[in-house]
Every structure is written in C-alpha cells, then in structure tokens.
Write a structure and sequence with these properties.
Elements lengths: L3 E11 L2 H11 L2 E2 L7 E5 L8 E5 L4 E9 L2 H8 L8 E2 L7 E6 L5 E6 L39 E9 L2 H11 L2 E7 L10 E6 L6 E2 L3 E5 L4 E8 L3 H13 L4 E8 L5 E6 L5 E6 L3 E2 L6 E3 L7 E4 L9
Pfam family, one: Glyoxalase
GO molecular function: metal ion binding; methylmalonyl-CoA epimerase activity
GO biological process, one term: L-methylmalonyl-CoA metabolic process
Length: 311
C-alpha cells in the first residue's frame, strides 16, 4: 500500500471567491500569487505549496482531499488499483503528479507526489507555558494582539459516508493507515460507526488522527482542521473572527479523543473549518479505544457541541 506523508489539501467549490478569501484570510491563510478569478489557492506557513483550494462555481460543494505520498512508486501502486486514474501531471500550481480515486460514495481522493515545496513563511515562536511544576517561560511575558492567527498545516479531515466499514477498508487498501480510536453508538458496545485513522510510521510520532470516517445518512465532508501555533493563537484568532463579523460554530474547548484544543467555525458557504492545537501524538504501538458517548461527551471542557454535531 502507498505510504501517505501528509494531508496536502482540501478542495471546495463556492459561488463567491472574494467572500471566500475574506473569510480564509481572517482565519489565517495566505493567498498565493497563482490564484485567479476562477480558483483561489491558499497556503499555510509550512512548506506545502497550498493547502486550501476554492473553485468558482454556482453552487458550493466539497471537491475532495489530496494526500501526499512518499514516492512515485506509491502513485504507480495506486494507479494499478481498480477505479484509479492513470498517473497524470497536476494542473494546479506547484505541479507534481497525481492519481485520482473515488471512495465508495464517490468522494474524490487524490494522491500527489513531486509537487514543489514552498518556502516556509516567517512566524513567531510558540509561547512557552508555565504550568505548576514546569516553568518554561522565564523572564518573558506573553504579549499577543487580536488578529488573524497563522495557519500552519492541514492536520486532518472528516468524512460522512454511507457505509463505514466499506470506506475504512477502501482507505486501508490504499494507504498506510492504522486505527486510533472508535465511535460506537451511545451506551452500546457496537457496532463501530466511526474510526479515527492515523499514519503508520513505525516508531515515529504522528498525529492521533489523519482523518475520521463516520457512518451517516448523508455523504460529504464534516470539517477540515488546521493546526496553529498554540492556545494564544486559537484564542486571539477567535476574538478576531468575532470582530470581523463571523459567527462561531463550536468552541473553544478540548477534545477527549485526540485531546486537541479546538475552535470550529462555518465559512460563508456553510462548510465547517477548525483551528486546533495541542493534539496527541502517538506511534504504531498506540492501542485503539472505544468511545460510546454523545457528541457533547467528546468535549472535556469548554463549548460543547450539540447532540446533532456529528449527524
């Protein structure tokens, strides 16, 4: 199976690129020069060429996710699987080669290799945190102004699917994903209706999840999540987005599964998007657990999502 390296990008269609850019800039992305009147390409501070794409269209819709793989051989392996495209040259800025696939529900998933890397953008250092027993910030004060935070990277995305087991098997056949944790119906021991998937990099530490697959009565993206520097970035950005007239969805709070401090927003077209920081990192030895609470129970503290959050 192909060795995934990173979430490369998520892609959407929307009827107003100016409004999309206004929100995404306030959220913390930077527009890249190759953007046009037809396609908006936004980047973070890391070396991915771009991580969020919006195509101009009459109606908003999710256009899928792109996963960076380790080698050309990974693309060849994926292209040989039933339903995959041949290896083609990417038509997006940064180039590279891609293989287009579709999940059992028809959601586009692209694998990419060889896309040009961007020069990382300059950013502040994360603030050190003085907890009760470990005083890491000595002689320095925290000073941060309200304003956009800096989005660094696309950390994960969440899909609603019509057949959880089939979709998880589809991804595992193609990529080096391991199970991190499971959702089961509240108060029950099964069946599994949601699986957090992570990369298998052996002893190397990776994020608790690369994606989440959820059984649902509708098909599409639940949210995409972008990592920021620290808690102060989350909170100052929250205040900035409120000041800019945007409405908070759910947040700020701390997740149970994955431990991330989260802040969810809706973009102007109804797509959910998340700032997060301080997530769990694990290696291949991590053992999955089963969670059988409600959506509200997934938050340890802070603004709790409503019961219908994952529906």
């Amino acid at each position: 199976m192909a060795r995934a390296v990173e979430c490369a990008q998520v892609s959407y269609a929307a009827p107003d690129l100016e409004e999309a850019e206004r929100f995404l800039t306030a959220f913390g992305f930077a527009r890249i020069p190759e953007s046009t009147d037809e396609v908006l390409y936004m980047r973070g501070t890391n070396d991915q060429h771009h991580i969020h794409v919006t195509h101009l269209a009459e109606k908003q819709r999710f256009l899928g996710a792109t996963i960076e793989v380790e080698s050309r051989a990974d693309l060849e392996e994926l292209a040989a699987l039933e339903g995959s495209s041949e290896i083609t040259e990417s038509e997006e800025p940064g180039g590279g080669q891609v293989v287009l696939m579709h999940t059992p529900d028809g959601i586009p998933i692209r694998a990419i290799h060889g896309r040009a890397k961007a020069e990382p953008l300059e950013d502040r250092e994360p603030f050190r945190f003085n907890n009760l027993s470990d005083k890491q910030r000595v002689g320095d004060s925290v000073r941060i102004k309200q304003g956009p935070c800096t989005v660094n990277r696309l950390g994960h995305f969440v899909l609603h699917v019509s057949n959880h087991d089939e979709t998880v098997a589809w991804f595992k056949e193609r990529f080096n994903f391991l199970d991190s944790d499971y959702f089961v119906p509240p108060g029950e021991e099964g069946p599994i209706v949601g699986t957090f998937l992570r990369l298998d990099r052996g002893d190397e530490l990776v994020d608790h999840h690369f994606m989440l697959v959820l059984q649902s009565d509708w098909v599409g993206v639940h949210h995409s999540a972008f990592e920021v520097l620290d808690l102060d970035a989350v909170m100052s950005a929250h205040d900035h987005l409120i000041a800019e007239g945007f409405t908070s969805d759910v947040g700020v709070g701390r997740h149970l599964l994955g431990s991330q401090i989260f802040d969810y927003w809706k973009d102007p077209f109804g797509f959910r998007i998340e700032h997060y920081t301080d997530g769990d990192v694990v290696n291949a030895d991590h053992v999955p657990t089963r969670f059988n609470g409600t959506a509200s129970d997934t938050t340890q503290w802070g603004n709790r999502p409503p019961l219908e959050f994952f529906q």
